[in-house]
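Do me a favour: review this protein, sequence plus C-alpha cells, and tell me how the chain folds. Record follows.
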Amino acid sequence: MGYFSCNNKSAIAICDSYNFELLSKNPKRNRRRPFKIAEFDFSDLHSATDGFSSAKLLGKGSHGWVYKAELRKLGLIAAVKKTKVVVGGTGNPADNEVDILSRIYHPRLVNLIGFGLDSNQHKLIVVEYMPNGSLFDQLHGLGRPPGWVKRTRFALQVAWAVQFLHSSQPPIIHRDIKSSNVLIDGDFNSRISDFGLALRGHVEDVRPAGTLGYLDPCYLAPGDLSTKSDVFSFGILLLEMISGRNAIDVNYSPPSVVEWAVPEIRSGNLEAICDPRIGAPDDEEALRRMAVLAARCVRCAAEKRPAMAEVVEGLKSVYRRMKAGSRRCVKVGVARVEVKDGVGRSKSIGGAASEIKFEALDIGSGKREGFGVKMSTVRLSRSKSMGMVRSRRLINGGRKNVIAVGSVKSKLLLVDFDEE
C-alpha cells in the first residue's frame, strides 16, 4: 500500500488537508490521490488531540468519536476518528474504512490521510478536517438555513460522489448515505464521510446495515444489496433537503418523510413539501424536477430507481435553473438609501446600481467594520425585483454575498445579489 511515516518533514506539503484541492489545476477532474497515505505514531496523535480531550471533540457517531488534531510538527490540521471496538461483529468499521478509502480518492469525499494504532492495537483513522460541520447541521441547526441554490449544489456534489463510488471497479456501496455523513469543507462544498459500513462489490456474508429512515426497504438480506440501495438513501436525503424535515420525525404524522412527501409530489402540491423557512423557489419547474427525481429515487421497486449517473444529470439541470434564477437580478454597486417607515429606496451613484425599492426589515446597530467608517447592516426582504437575500457585514474590503451595508447616517448600500 505504500505506507510511510509522517514523521518525515517531506510529508508536510502532501499531507496538508487544506491544500489537497490546490494540488491539481482542475481539482474536479482529479481522481488520483495527490498524496501517500501516512502511518502516524500514536504519541503524535495523542499529543495532537490533547490526549483526546473533550475540548477537541468534534462529534460522536455510531462507530466512535471524532477529534480535531493539530499536528504541529507537520503544520497539519486533520480529524482523528477513534472507533469503538466491535465485539462479536462481522468486521471492524475502522479496518473497513481504511481498506476502502486507501483505494480511492475524490474531491467530494472526506479522504483518508493516514492511520495509527493505539497501545491496544486499535486503529485510529486520520482524515481531512471539515471545518463547517455536517449537512445535518446546515439543515436542522439554529443558524439561517441554506437557500435553494446552495441546497441543490450540495445535492449535486453528493450525487457526484455517490456516482464515483458506484462506477469504481468493483462498485463501492456506501450503505449509510445520510445528512450527518455529509460534511461541509472550508469552501462550503459537500463531501461524503464515514465508510465504516461501505462494501466493495457483492458480499454474501454481511448482514444488512444502515440508518433507520434512510434504509432501503428492499434491503432485507445480503443478497438484496445493490447500488440502488444507495440511490434510495440519496432520495431520502433529497427529500430532507427540499423539506427541511428529518427522515423520521415523530412530531409529524406520518413521521416518515417518504410517506408524507411522495403523495404530495404525485398530486402536484409541491409548495407543501418546501422548507417553510425559505419557501418555494421562484422557478417552479426546477422544484418540480428536483421533487420528481427524489420520488423516483425512493420507489419501492429497486429496479425502477434511476442510476446515479441519471440523478447527476437531473440535478445539473436543476442547479443551472436555480442558479440562473438567483442571478437574474444581480446588481453590484454603491447607492444612497433613504429609509422611512420601514421602506427603503436606493438610488445609484455613478450608475453603479439601478434604483431598488425594498423593505428594510432590520437596520443593525452601528459598528466599525473596516474602511474607517461606522457601518450597520440592512436586512432586505423578498420582492419581485430581487430574490431572497441575506445580510452580511462588510469586512476587510468586502466579500461575496454582502447584500446591504451602510453608515448609520447616510445609509450607503452595497448590493450584491449572489447565490444563497
Summary: Residues 156 and 315 are 6 Å apart (CA to CA).
